[in-house]
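How a chain folds remains the central question behind the approach discussed here. The record that follows shows the chain in one-letter code together with its fold in token form:
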Amino acid sequence: MELVVQEMEDAKVRWNVSIANIILFTHLKMKDFMHLKLLFSELPKLGVKPDIVTFGILFDARRFGFDETRILVMWRRIGLLDGSVKIDTDPLVLIAYGKGNFLKKF
């Protein structure tokens, strides 16, 4: 996964919420919490505003033992939790990875 991100950066691909969620989904499926935490915390620096799918990934990770508290505190501190949340992720991402438990119940 790190090679994919490096290739994206080398090609100067701009980050968006769909790309971020694909990578987040992948780390969640692998239960790679170190990289999951890193990417969640890097989203604001990458110019990516979390959507409801991103929150779904965050809360689904909690079911596997991921502690989302620091991420939510940081997002609240910088104002990412102040507005309403919508789905900006490409629907093909949801088809490929599924909705996850949070979005199914939501």
